[in-house]
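Review form for a predicted model. The reviewer records the input and the model, then writes brief findings.
Reviewer: anonymous (R2)
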Amino acid sequence: MTRCDVFMLGLGSWGDVLPLIGVGTELASGGLAVRIGCNEHFAGAVTAAGLQHEQLGDEETYRTVTADARLWHPTKGLRLLLGYCARAVEPTHEATLRAIDDGAGAVICHQLGWGAKIAGEERRVPVATVALAPASILSRESPPVLGTGLDVSGWPRWLRGALLGFAERLLDLGVAGPVNRFRRDRGLPPISRVLARWVIATDPFLCLWPDWFGPVPSDAPPGAMATGFIHNDGPEETLAPEVRDFLLAGEGHAVVATFGSGNQHAARLLEATARAADALGRRSLLLTRFPGEIGALPGSALVAHHAPLAAVLEHAGCLVHHGGIGTTARALRAGVPQVVTALAYDQHDNALRLRRLGVGERLKGAKADTPSIRGAIERAIGRAETAAEVASREDGLGPARAADRIRAMLAR
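Model under review:
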């Protein structure tokens, strides 16, 4: 038996798993044995951090899910993702029970880790849910921009409450049935509002962003606390010579574009960004693991299969991206103005928060084209001074705060 003190469950992409590795590394530095359950795709990063890896799904499964173009649709994507997570309840439950049998005294789960929370409930082991972005909280007081891009913050409270209540029930349609059947088979009572209420009703409920990006609303669960961003870029890497030379060449900082580590359908946006940057007399670095679909590009563009984003941003004048919270946080830390071409999930909400901070521009990804991206880049670059000021608010203590709360769970 391999000793395990803390079990962490990560479902999703790099943006979902890297923060857990960051917190896990902080816990391990104090002598705790940390195990992370996630797809085989992330095993190397987990073990490189000195943490235990529990495989949940293989590389083929990850590639199959991320290859589905529906994943990036504002409504179809969420249904697809929730269906995948519903099928993962049993294996995540079993993985969590194994960790508890190996000594885990605390379980940390993503909002989609329903099997882990059920296992903790059965074994009476403390569970903490982590949320990665403010949009995770369907607050009536401070409502998020929904995945479709709808902003209801200016609506009367009764009307936005009615809409969000409807959204909660809608989310339950494909989730509550499988979860409650699983619970019934284990003699547990049924639940409702699985995503909006049940899974986040933990103490602590760790909100992995700083207050200045999104204050925790008063109608959040009582155990909610904002820790700060968890910056973790994975194993330390240096820029490839070709990328480094490209970024250092010419006048003015380059425009950098990335639309998600798992996005296999970003060719249109990458091409449009390259043309927009070229029209502004700027070079563009396009980061994608799937370059095969990209068409003709201007000579001022370079495509890189991979480059460490933190190192790239040291030489960037603007970052054009999808609005994932991990990418958003890295650019905020680097003080780089941003253009977000939001598609779904929390991306529209993150983009609006960047606009409110005065460091970013928001476009709807489905409609973004060369002219609109060009204008957005031009406006964003003019906000470099504000971006630098916002970067100074980062204190880098997010992992330590989260780890302290988890240690307190173990001490109960």
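Findings: The first strand starts at residue 6 and ends at 9.
Further findings: DSSP finds 17 helices and 13 strands in the chain.
Recommendation: see findings above.
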